[in-house]
Please model this.
Amino acid sequence: MTFAKHFKTAIISFAIALGIASSYAKETYTSDISALPQPAISFLNDNFKGLNITKIKIETGWFKKTTYDVDLANGVEIEFDKNGNWKDIESKTANLPLSLLPKQLAEAVNKKVPNAKIESIERKGYGYKIELENDVELLVYDDLRVIKSKKD
Model:
């Protein structure tokens, strides 16, 4: 067999494998809080008690680990990992409270930007990425070093 035929066979095999893998990907929707892992339920009850869940999207798949995207009635969207730990919190309408952050981190952010109005918080490998109103972005490392930057 020539290189071209081997290459063609490899491409076709990859396409078939990708098609099979994507057929295992699944999205389901609910508004029932009991569909979430217990840590996610506790987080929602501790921080957003009384707010209605408008939608929970549960994504599962062969290559993609299970994630839970929760939409609340006040415009807050929260992404949880398969274990129920929040990964990303975003608000389109309301400012997020500093109390969503660990206490020392909230104090460090408040010291750097007093009365910060938080639009989104994302957990990163190095720490946190926090977006404030007026396009101010804070990168906060695990050792609580806060770097303030302006978005482009």
